[in-house]
């Protein structure tokens, strides 16, 4: 995959609004935010959280039994045990720290494959307010009163991510239309034409499809869009470039997950890495093999601990995402750290003899081809030869990219070229035809693996 | 009497249950459950006077939990 290369901003980008917000949360009036003050605040909240979970959470009563009750420095957090997705699946109610009556919303995350029980994350009204508040501040990075934001994330049930986003925007005096994920691209394009948003929030491939459709059939739609916020899945750089070119807009990345309360971090105007909700979570990068903390700037697995959540606080939750803290200060001038746009999910790489193949490797090549709206892959082994089948879906109004161009694109991925040259891999390219069975699009795109 | 899976037949599920408030045997009836803006109905024992329903553990852990999972999308 391309290591993220961030363009140098032309004018000094505005300070991330997260900094004054986090400073206010620490209770300090000193500006700019003092990192030592932030760390002292984080240590206090961490100790409060440890006290809470030891009293109220069956899981942490067991898990933390042999560990110190209070930490005297943030460095000591590295001695505490991790919490994993498996732990959440095994006994969700063991994590609950409030009466069920006080649970305002539960989010059930569908299982991927045959991993057993789903993850269920619990939130009180207070927890939801933390999210709404972050959404308001985070969105103020790109929109202001007078803007109209089309939200292409779920908003049917109360407390859905799109609903909370809409509520956060409304508080800022920004109009929001919560459309939901794009099930019908033409209907979504119609909504855009009628409502004329100046910004949109959505899932990368879904927003891409709208851009390609508008370019082919309705070039006057979307011209007022100055910013896009993409979330839920990794944003392949060529996909972002296409959006920038079609609508002349800026593309902001958001990173989050339900376990974080939906929101985690967001680009500032420098578009050069996420600034994080550091008053609400403590973030670490660990070596995924040893579990030890990585030196700053080294790539590893992101781990977080909640500092302000009530219903289901999490201690050192392993996200399964690979990234690093960017060592240089952000061009926006903040004292806050930057997290590099997530490289990949640890569990999702395919191991080949020449190396690992990630979804991002395929995304970064195939989305450079004109008109490609999406693609799906299946990886299988037939009589000792690995076969990677790639089905490409061109957006309506675009021809299928020629097979040789696709092949050339795929073979630009070093691990695929090496495997093909060694005679261990065959690439099969086809068109993804027929009805596109659209789910909500909330799941991450990944290489399909068939076992025989 | 049981069904093929050993569960009590529907008309037996109310057997032996009484409403503590009204001291009446519960009767099978339609009860509407709502959650996250959706409604669905189940046939369960309930008090003929106040409507107090009885949801047994199996119902809660199987059908209701399944519905919860489906509705609790992000």
What's this model, at a glance?
With 452 residues, chain A is of the alpha/beta class.
Secondary-structure blueprint of this entry?
The complex is a heterodimer of chains A (452) and B (74).
Chain A: H1 18-26, H2 35-56, H3 58-63, H4 85-90, E1 105-109, E2 119-123, H5 125-139, E3 148-151, H6 161-171, E4 175-178, H7 185-195, E5 199-202, H8 204-217, E6 227-230, H9 237-247, E7 250-255, E8 265-267, E9 274-276, E10 281-286, E11 300-306, E12 317-323, E13 325-326, E14 338-339, E15 344-345, E16 350-352, E17 355-357, H10 359-366, E18 372-382, E19 385-394, H11 403-411, H12 414-421, E20 425-431, E21 448-449
Parallel strand pairs in A: 3-4, 3-5, 5-6, 6-7, 18-21, 19-20
Antiparallel strand pairs in A: 1-2, 7-8, 8-9, 10-11, 11-12, 12-15, 13-14, 16-17, 18-19
Helix pairs in contact in A: 5-6, 7-8, 8-9
Chain B: E1 18-19, E2 24-25, E3 27-35, E4 38-46, H1 57-71
Antiparallel strand pairs in B: 1-2, 3-4
Q: Cα-atom Rg of chain A, whole angstroms?
A: 22 Å
SSE-based structural type of chain A: alpha/beta
Q: How far is it from the N-terminal to the C-terminal residue of chain A, by CA?
A: 28 Å
Spatial order of the strands forming the largest sheet of chain B: 1-2
The helix-strand sequence of chain B is EEEEH
> Portion of residues in helices of chain B?
10-25%
Q: How would you sum up the major sheet of chain B?
A: 2 strands, antiparallel
Poorly predicted spans of chain B: none
Helix count of chain A? 12
The main pleated sheet of chain A reads as:
7 strands, mixed
Give the assembly state of these chains: heterodimer
What is the number of E strands of chain A? 21
Gross morphology of chain B is globular
